[in-house]
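Milestone M4 deliverable, item 7.
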Amino acid sequence: MKINSNGHLHQLVYFPGIFPVNCYLIEENESLTLIDAGLPTSYKGIQQAEAQLGKPLTRIVLTHVHSDHVGSLDKLVELYPGIEVYVSRRDARLMNGDMSLDAHEAQTPIKGGVPKHLKTRPTQLLDEGDTVGSLQVIEVPGHTPGSIALLDTRNRFVIAGDAFQTRGGIAVAGDLRFIFPFPALATWSKADALQSAQKLLQLQPALLAIGHGDMIQQPAQQMQRAIQQAASRWNIVLSLL
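Output delivered:
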């Protein structure tokens, strides 16, 4: 595991040279919030990082419910009795094995590794604008119907899950990068992903942190380029949000 830190944010990277999977620890005054639970063995590095930071881990927030983002969730809940688990109201359905689509949603199958044997269920359901400590919830459907990003209101850092990737080159979810194609192959709706990417760009983040790849400081120009490239590939006219 590799740790990259920037202020209150600590990126935990697993298999950085092969299949990079990122979790994030966010420091609050007296505690830590974990964003995503990585792979089945990620809990070991999370515990080590918690010890180094010297604050208790009290919350887990999931950006979406794919296997590489919830791999250590059951183990962490076992290790930290009483820990709070947050997930979007929409993606909570995936935790229950409900792969159905609502009438207003893109009628394409939900993709990616949705775990079938996850024991943990959320203690809190999240909607647009909710807050978890210093983090504000931003709904970014596309990779999954209920994907969320988290905006740190103290510094405008955005932790975006798989709404973007930077491994293999920055890309909107669903826009294939042959060096690292997995986020694209696991994306449910390209049109929704593109609209969500535009929504994140409008936040003018000071830093973009994602599930797969390096963090980017002052990312607006690169985000804009990725959005335009995806729109061109998919023949979608960009809309003003």
